[in-house]
Amino acid sequence: MPTRINGPTIIQAAGNKPKVIEEFIGRVNSGTEGLSIARMKSPSGWVEPGQTPEFDEYTVVLRGVLHVTSRSGTIEVAAGQAIITPAGEWVRYSTPGPEGAEYIAVCVPAFSPHTVHRDE
């Protein structure tokens, strides 16, 4: 039988400014460990610590521009575009543009604060 998710759970975000993470599917909201799906709303000037996660992350930008920095450089991902960041690669997400960004992130397996491995 299908399971309806009536709404997201707000997850604590890392970074220099308040960011909203709405987890629809994942360890917290649905008890799903295989993947997580969350809507992110990041303000202008937001940046989070670098991380080396144990999960693949698939991101679709809905509004604004998301910057994804890796050891190879920075990629700008605009509304209507997507990016895949593989597990084990160091990355840092930010939204330096004037409108911030709204995006959907899918993590496989599901996001966990114990497997994201943020920089100190």
Number of helices: 0
The rounded distance between the terminal residues' Cα atoms is 43 Å
Gross morphology: globular
What's the level 1 CATH class? Answer: Mainly Beta
| Rg estimate, integer Å | 14 Å
**Relative helix content:** under 10%
User: Spans with pLDDT under 50 lasting ≥5 residues?
Assistant: none
Structural class: mainly beta
Report the sheet-strand fraction.
over 45%
Main sheet summary: 9 strands, antiparallel
What can be said about this structure in brief?
This protein is an all-beta fold.
Q: What does it look like?
A:
This protein has strands at residues 9-11, 20-25, 36-42, 46-47, 56-70, 73-78, 82-85, 91-95, 101-108. It is mainly β and 120 residues long. The chain has a single domain (9-108), classed as Jelly Rolls. Strands 1, 2, 3, 4, 5, 6, 7, 8 and 9 form a nine-stranded antiparallel β-sheet that branches. A hairpin with an 8-residue loop joins strand 1 (9-11) and strand 2 (20-25). The protein is globular, with a radius of gyration of 14 Å. The model has no long low-confidence stretch (mean pLDDT 97).
